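Supplementary Methods. Inverse-folding protocol.

Structures were first reduced to a discrete structure-token string of length 215. This string, shown here, constituted the complete conditioning input.
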């Protein structure tokens, strides 16, 4: 699983409808218990409801994980994967129109920052974290399925298939080659005021800074 592909998927498009959760299996021997679980997991959400999702990312080359916390237009994402047999991790913070990335490759950390406040594509794609249905006009709705006990509408386009909860959060995504599957979904997560602050012990360089270093 190429790290640069993960950056493209999560940093540039900010998950771009690729949010998912594992599809729950039916238990014909325990329908009453299953119904009770589904009702318990029916929650109310708005665009300002803080939530936590933990995903497993799988493709033909391997696996990785994504731990994501979102509140309004602020987010924190922890991506872990393997690159050339080495464990690689990336922390991403999105706050007040800025995106900060902390990349840890074989024990070496590097910080990058980008001003995305005026990036229309970024702002549009970031909205898909909590308002995905508006962006599914080219998809076909095909019934519903349970995802971690949450009833989701299923949309498809070609080989792509997306599971969406409450018309707001895409809880599962596959494009036929790779899959994002959430193992945990915590709506109304309790997050402190400084939770989305980037670490102060990392020097964050802009793209211009990096270009100057290469000259």
């Amino acid at each position: 699983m190429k790290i640069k592909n993960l950056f493209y998927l999560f940093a540039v498009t900010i998950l771009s409808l690729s949010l998912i959760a594992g599809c729950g299996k039916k238990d014909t021997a325990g329908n009453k218990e299953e119904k009770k679980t589904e009702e318990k997991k029916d929650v109310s959400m708005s665009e300002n409801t803080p939530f936590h999702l933990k995903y497993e990312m799988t493709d033909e080359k391997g696996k990785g994980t994504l731990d994501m916390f979102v509140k309004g237009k602020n987010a924190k994402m922890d991506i872990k994967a393997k690159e050339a047999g080495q464990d690689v991790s990336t922390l991403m913070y999105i706050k007040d129109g800025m995106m900060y990335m902390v990349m840890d490759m074989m024990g070496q950390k590097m910080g990058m920052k980008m001003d995305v406040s005026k990036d229309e594509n970024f702002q549009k794609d970031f909205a898909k974290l909590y308002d995905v249905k508006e962006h599914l006009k080219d998809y076909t709705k095909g019934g519903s399925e349970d995802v971690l006990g949450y009833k989701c509408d299923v949309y498809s386009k070609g080989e792509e298939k997306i599971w969406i909860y409450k018309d707001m959060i895409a809880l599962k995504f596959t494009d036929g080659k790779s899959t994002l599957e959430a193992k945990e979904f915590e709506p109304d997560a309790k997050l402190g005021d400084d939770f989305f602050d980037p670490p102060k012990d990392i020097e964050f360089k802009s793209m211009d800074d990096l270009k100057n270093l290469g000259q």
